[in-house]
Amino acid sequence: MQRAGIREIGIIVGDTRKEIMSAVGDGSQFGVNVTYIPQDQPLGLAHCVLIANDFLSNDDFVMYLGDNMLEQGLEGFVKEFEAARSAGGKNAPTAQILLCHVDDPRQFGVAEVTEEGHVKRLVEKPKDPPSDLALVGVYLFDKTINEAVRAIKPSKRGELEITDAIQWLIQQGRTVRHEVLQGWWLDTGKKDPLLECNRLVLEVLEPRNDGSVDGGSQIEGRVVIMKGAKIVNSRIRGPVVIGSDTVIDNSYIGPYTSIGNNCNIVHSELEHSVLLDGCTVNDVHKMTDSLLGRNVQVVKSQHRPRALRLMLGDDSKVELDA
Fold first, then answer.
1. What distances in angstroms separate CA 126 from CA 102, 131, 283, one per listed residue?
2. Which of 140, 206, 297, 315 is most buried, judging by how many CB atoms fall within 10 Å of its CB?
């Protein structure tokens, strides 16, 4: 968003507001100003627009879903919308949506478009899709969307749907443009897509070492070692990112692994995994395809009798090798 020239960003926050506010702050680290807009219940994307009315005022705006990851930037998408609106005329767009060709459109909101590139109809998870163009979670709107979100009714699941609001614009004779996504698109709301996203990001990694690597260690391929990190008698095979003040001791870190800040990896082997800040992995023979949240500890039990001892949060999943 910052690269697209957007400086004022409103973030809708719910139960995880403390974590989000801690990570993003006031936006100054990104060169933007951030305003937090609380949503007490998840009542739909159109409801997000509704409660952001004071923040949005009558300005044009981008709506970007937080769990989407795109290879393509927003710069061109925003410029096309601004150019089409500046051209004026009866076909000046009120909204613009981003679409992506998918193998099974029945799993998505699907758009039917005209030869002129205007959106004719939106259908949510249709049994008989009118196209293979799925809605990506990036939208551009002018102030008319504020009227639309007030005009629609909640869906069967009790939410104000943004697809219904866009459909209302179409029914009112407004022009809704579309562009087709270039590059990959992932919804990172689950473990496997998040790991895939991590893999794709690491593919374009530029290696650098701002930490320390002792003489007994091997660094292979594209590896980023952040300030204060220490690599001791270990093998790191990129692409890998190792966060600030993290210690890797007598361990192997394999490809497509991202390790956060202040982690400790000792006498362990891991690859194709994401570890957030403060994690400890100690004496683990092989860990792969894993996602660890903040301050997670995975250690070999020293108690007798030997047994599996777990403390897991909501919706956790553990796969055992025996």
1. 14, 10, 49
2. 140
Decide if pLDDT at 9 tops 90.
yes
Instruction: Give the residue from 167, 135, 132, 133 showing the smallest Cα distance to 148.
Output: 167
pLDDT confidence of residue 192 = 83
Q: How far is residue 28's CA from residue 310's CA, in Å, rounded to a whole number?
A: 39
Residue 55 makes CB contacts below 8 A (sequence gap 6+) with 8, 10, 35, 37
**CA dihedral (156, 160, 164, 168) positive or negative:** positive
Question: Binning pLDDT at 50, 70 and 90, where does residue 239 land?
Answer: very high
Task: Cite the DSSP H helix spans in 13-161.
Answer: 17-24, 45-51, 53-56, 75-87, 144-151
Q: Hey, is 197 helix, strand or coil?
A: helix
DSSP one-letter string for 156-169: TTS---HHHHHHHH
Q: What confidence score (pLDDT) does residue 181 get?
A: 87
pTM of the model: 0.77
pLDDT at 322: 59
pLDDT tens string 26-83? 999 999 999 999 999 989 999 999 999 999 999 999 999 988 888 888 899 999 999 9
Q: C-alpha angle with apex 103: 74 to 109, nearest 5 degrees?
A: 60
Cα separation of 86 and 276, whole Å? 44
Write down all domains in the chain, each with its CATH number in brackets: 41-186 (3.90.550.10), 201-299 (2.160.10.10)
Q: How many residues does the chain have?
A: 322
Distance of alpha carbon 298 from its chain centroid, rounded?
26
Strand pairing partners for 269? 252
Determine the pLDDT at residue 318.
78
Element (H, E) at 171: helix 162-171
